Amino acid sequence: MIKKFIRKILGVKDGRNPTEPVTLGVEQHGIDLKLLSPNAIRLTQTLQEAGFKAFVVGGAVRDLLLGVKPKDFDIATDATPEQVKKLFRRAFIIGRRFQIVHVMFGQELLEVTTFRGAGSANAPKDEHGRVLRDNSFGPQHEDAARRDFTINAMYYDPATQTVLDYHGGIEDIRDKTLRIIGVPEARYREDPVRMLRVVRFAAKLGFTIEPTTRAPIPVMAPLIDNVPAARVFDEMLKLLLSGHALACLKELRSAGLHHGLLPLLDVVLEQPIGMKFVTLALESTDGRVKAGKGVSPGFLFASLLWHQVLEKWNAYRAAGEAPIPALHLAADDVLETQTDNLALQRRIATDMRDIWAMQPRFERRQGKAPYKLLENPRFRAGYDFLLLRCASGELDAEIGEWWTAFYDAESGERERLLTQANARPAAGEKKKRPPRRGPRHRSEGAAGNDTGMGAPAAAGAGEE
Ligand code: ATP
Ligand code: MG
Question: What domains are defined for the chain?
Fold first, then answer.
């Protein structure tokens, strides 16, 4: 019993000694060298020729074992950051939480980390036990024990084509299991972000979270509050841009991680009215990521928070505010809460505001206004957003179809579409009052009238 407990603390599984790795040859692991970046091979080779150990490590090995081309390569070595830096022309020591070396080969960036030691007992921590800084170096087996999950703790040497497995990662890959290394509670306490990581990997890889790895999460979830907002935001972004955002959010909910943690998630997961819109937005994001297309974080967050903006927009208008200023006030409120809690970068917040502020202008289909909107550098994002609003049933489908036709049309055809739009008012524009100028707010100038929930038929000052 005691022996078992000590083993558990040391991360020993099935009686395995975690200082001695299992070594797997190519016939056992089956990694296809062609999935490796030539630069990762070059980098490990240079380090090895200089007398150091060097391996591809972490997520890249996991992906290689799954037959997936890794999106980036992390390298682990026993060379110190200074020793690594000296070997490469374009190498930079980056020191945030952990010191690492960025090595550039053309456009490709590889991260090189020196094996970390098991010194976390002495590392400075916050009052909740979160490790603040820990740069002690150590032997490779200690480096392995400090990694988060067994499937992320394998080392691959391209020269000999062998995999070193200290924690039964290869079996867990085969069983599609996510298992934390060591005592789960202690590992989440050291770094609560691991709770978000396990959820992301489970959703992305379609793996099952092993029960003892999963059990403490709902209880320990509030520890995420103490993690610097910027780090949580980075992890959220990874989660949402993983190509499996919908699955990730479902998994977050089922792991009990959605409650009172991130205001953004509360909004998204606990507000059923916006769910259709959010689901469509995430489906489209996942589709784009899987197709290798770019995704703008601004668009994504603008979608996730749109229904919160809508609600506040309506409230401000009900309180007598004109539609455009009301929209800006609503955007201010939503962005303010989110920037405090989520460290939304200013650039992303600006993109979100642009996308929201453009929306009423799509409903103005007279004169030069639609042409002006087409010239807006952010038109495409605003238009895609409009289509989501239509698809979710918030707006009449006709307006989205009209804009698609207008966007695709030649100039003569555009005039015809304009005439047609003005002859046959859209459903959302039925209760139209005569245009009136609204007070200008910020740089956006467009005024409108009220036609109900989220569909103010904007009229009036649309000039930039
Ligand atoms: P991906 O890059 O696909 O998101 P990854 O596993 O490569 O997944 P990274 O954030 O790139 O994730 O980290 C590289 C490796 O560093 C991980 O595989 C893991 O071994 C280790 N690691 C990263 N974050 C942590 C953490 N919070 N705690 C312990 N080990 C970690
Ligand atoms: Mg990685």
Answer: 1-180 (3.30.460.10), 183-261 (1.10.110), 272-425 (1.10.3090.10)
